[in-house]
Amino acid sequence: MERTSVNKRPPDAMPRPDDMGMRAMILKAAALSKLELSGAEWEQAKRDLQNMLECSDKLQELDTEGIEPAYHAVPMGNVLREDKVANGDGREQLLRNAPQSRDNLFVVPETF
């Protein structure tokens, strides 16, 4: 696989948006976020977006031949267990500590 320099975009990289494309992307993100951006904030958003795209370009340069895709940072196994009671029903003991109880439930003050 041919390596590309940091300053050269890989041939299969997505085309970089022009100023109008960047403006459209920032407008959409701002609208979805319900943000109103000032002039300085627009410029900062544009710089941030350009930096993100440059990082994406650098990632495109990596040689990933023979590397399996990783779906998690650490290996995942079955973390589920059988759902069964392990320590019994301590309802009576819990209700003994309640200031008030009725029908095996806690009685609490009304909230509204």
Outline:
This protein is mainly α and 112 residues long.
Describe this structure in words.
This protein has helices at residues 19-33, 39-60, 91-96, and strands at 101-102, 105-106. β1 (101-102) and β2 (105-106) form a beta hairpin. By secondary structure, it is mostly helical. The protein starts with 18 loop residues before the first helix and ends in a 6-residue tail after the last strand. It has a domain at 19-60. It contains three helices and two strands. Residues 1-9 have low confidence and may be disordered. It has a two-stranded antiparallel ribbon with strand order 1-2. Helix content is 38%, strand content 4%.
Q: What are the secondary-structure elements, in order, as H or E?
A: HHHEE
Q: What is the average per-residue confidence, as pLDDT, rounded to a whole number?
A: 81
Assembly form of the protein: single chain
- Given the structure, what is the number of helices? 3
Q: How far apart are the first and last residues' alpha carbons, in Å?
A: 69 Å
Mind summarizing the main beta sheet?
Answer: 2 strands, antiparallel
Strand order of the largest sheet: 1-2
Give the strand content.
under 5%
Helix content: 25-40%
The radius of gyration is 28 Å
- Please state the structural category: mainly alpha
Low-confidence stretches: 1-9
Report the count of strand segments: 2
* Net shape: elongated
